[in-house]
Design brief:
Layout: E1 27-31, E2 44-49, E3 55-59, E4 66-71, E5 74-77, E6 101-107, E7 113-119, E8 121-128, E9 131-134, E10 150-155, E11 161-165, E12 177-181, E13 184-188, E14 193-198, E15 204-208, E16 214-218, E17 221-226, E18 229-235, E19 241-245, E20 248-253, E21 256-259, E22 264-273, E23 279-285, E24 290-296, E25 299-302, E26 313-321, E27 327-333, E28 336-344, E29 347-348, E30 351-353, E31 361-362, E32 369-374, E33 385-392, E34 399-403, E35 412-418, E36 430-437, E37 442-448, E38 450-451
Parallel strand pairs: 29-37, 31-38
Antiparallel strand pairs: 1-28, 2-3, 3-4, 4-5, 6-7, 7-8, 8-9, 10-11, 11-12, 12-13, 14-15, 15-16, 16-17, 18-19, 19-20, 20-21, 22-23, 23-24, 24-25, 26-27, 27-28, 30-32, 32-35, 33-36, 34-35, 36-37
Length: 454
């Protein structure tokens, strides 16, 4: 009998750095947006995730880009704001008319979303309870053809919004940064600051342009982190700042810096940090491929090493992480660019590929079936498995039966998968079975395989 050692989840994806079972995948990958089997998918960019695992971003539609909020497979698009023209004679209406748009940039734990909407200019919006409204106190910008003249970076759990806006129609006018709360606007009065994030204490971080460098702002005081800090992407509630410094991801805290390393090359960039000091971002590998990473306790790990090797995904860029360790970003599914959400599995089960055959050899040229047993145990009662959710290496079972495969007196589940449908190749060394229990918990089991002819 072949069994899979079980891993105990200590806290979210902190188990990544356990020495338990190297071959067992830690995380599952979910596409954000339309069903992954859809032949033609719209362009989607994810921006942020909150602690309820609600994801926001922008999706292309036949009517122009639209902000969206996505949760548990359901996507809601947000529409756009109608322009507020205090002086309609002050602007020139082009022909043809520009396409209305909206882009969702950030979301807090109350489900409030901030972003930018435009038609005859740009306006900052606040979206909550299904309604989009103008951010009071922030004047709309009716400047046709000038890009990035009004923007919003983030909203925290107190409801403070940080962004930037253009106060005049002259292209050489500086772009001030603002902090908004309940209709009151405070200007961060320093030239060239571009905010990226705000924590729940109102600490703002961002980048200084065009001179370069990163900054931290708190209670009216700017801290210049220095020109070697090229970007500041995020700040958590511990006042830890992440970004890129001289081609390498970093954590900055009170003037001290931790360099996070890289995945094989000399380049990495940190996009987000949560309050558990888990950092996500992207790094080039030794073969100069862009891979998403997660860093914790001094160790940078390729996110691709934590997902099933046969799932069809290559995770290229991690954008954000919440307190549960859920990660969003962008990658490639079977070569096609897709946004993703990574979540940890809830339960690890024992499976047996080709019961009775210790070699587990698979001939990928065969048109036959591959038997795989799910072994019953106290942690895996087979009556609680939703067999309709089961897949192995991306293939659904052709049939299943019950029988005592391992001779322990308990009935096991024996699935048969069509070999041509398996997402395995000549380099595969394991097969992963994924599914759900009837209570919604996600399960995974792994077993070694050998590909014939290798």
């Amino acid at each position: 009998m072949k069994t899979l050692k079980r891993i105990t989840i200590l806290f979210s994806i902190a188990i990544v750095w356990s020495t338990a079972v190297a071959s067992a995948p830690i995380m599952r990958v979910i596409e954000v947006g339309p069903d992954i089997t859809t032949a033609e998918s719209p362009s989607i960019a994810v921006s942020a995730i909150n602690n309820a695992s609600q994801v926001v971003g922008t999706i292309s539609t036949p009517y122009g880009p639209r902000g969206f909020i996505w949760h548990n497979g359901e996507m809601t698009t947000m529409g756009y704001l109608s322009p507020v023209l205090t002086d309609p004679f002050s602007i020139v209406i082009p022909y043809p008319l520009p396409i209305p748009y909206s882009r969702a940039h950030n979301i807090n734990d109350s489900g409030q979303v901030v972003g930018v909407s435009g038609w005859l200019g740009d306006e900052v919006f606040l979206w909550e309870n299904g309604q989009m409204s103008h951010l009071s106190g922030i004047e709309p910008v009716h400047v046709i053809g000038l890009d990035d003249r009004l923007g919003v970076a983030a909203i925290n759990n107190v409801g403070q919004v940080v962004g930037r806006y253009y106060r005049d129609v002259y292209p050489n006018e500086d772009i001030p940064c603002f902090l908004w709360q309940n209709g009151v606007v405070v200007e961060l009065d320093r030239p060239g600051v571009w905010p990226s994030a705000i924590n729940d204490s109102g600490v703002v971080v961002g980048t200084i342009s065009p001179s370069g460098g990163a900054f931290l702002w708190e209670d009216g005081v700017f801290t210049d982190m220095g020109p070697s800090f090229w970007t500041a992407s995020d700040v958590n509630n511990l006042r830890q700042v992440v970004g890129m410094a001289q081609d390498e991801a970093y954590i900055w805290e009170g003037g001290s810096i931790i360099r996070l390393g890289h995945l094989g090359s000399y380049t990495s960039w940190a996009g987000a940090i949560n309050d558990n000091s888990q950092v996500v971002g992207t790094s080039f590998t030794s073969s100069w491929e862009s891979h998403a990473f997660i860093w914790q306790d001094g160790v940078m790990t390729d996110l691709n090493s934590l997902i099933p090797a046969d799932c069809g995904w290559v995770l290229a860029y991690a954008k954000d992480i919440n307190e549960s360790g859920d990660i969003i970003g962008h990658g490639f599914y079977k070569g096609e660019s897709r946004p993703f959400l990574c979540k940890t599995f809830d339960s690890y089960i024992s499976i047996d590929v080709k019961p009775g055959d210790s070699s587990n050899t698979i001939n990928l040229k065969s048109n036959g079936m591959l038997p795989v047993a799910v072994l019953a145990s106290s942690d895996c009662p087979i009556d609680s498995i939703d067999v309709g959710t089961i897949s192995l290496a991306g293939a659904k079972p052709a049939r299943q039966t019950r029988q005592d495969v391992d001779g322990d007196g308990d009935e096991d589940l024996l699935f048969h998968f069509r070999i041509p449908e398996l997402n395995l190749n000549a380099t595969s060394v394991e097969a992963n079975l994924i599914g759900r229990f009837s209570d919604g918990r996600w399960l995974v089991g792994s077993d070694k395989v050998k590909i014939a002819g290798r």
